[in-house]
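Hey,

Quick one before I head out. I ran the complex with FE2/S2 (inorganic) cluster overnight. Inputs first:
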Amino acid sequence: MGIELEVRKGESVAEAAWRLGYIWPTLCWGQADCVVCFTKIVGGEVCAQPMEEVESDAIRFKMPPRLRTDRTVRLACQLKVTGDDLVVEKRGVRLVEQEDNNMISEADESVDESERERS
Ligand code: FES
């Protein structure tokens, strides 16, 4: 099953996922340190911004050897996009359960409004 994320200008793929309420695996929350956020580009690679040094160093020094040389591997916390066609693969990405984030969405509030109007 796939999900579609709207990634804002200057935002990484993982940051977009976190902003939109998804769990994207991490231990360092975007510091290019844990490499847990790593993802594989499976399509639209022309829409991926080239790696900067912090990302390439993390991949070179912290990734397992079999992934270091895979040119489709990127750190989602550093991966920025330039177009709509980038497709990446990542296990463990899912929407945060409502009970987990303890937040009320606008949709929840509008339901409350309509219920109030009926009573
Ligand atoms: S979130 Fe830790 S390296 Fe990307």
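The chain is about 30% helix and 15% strand.

Talk tomorrow,
K.
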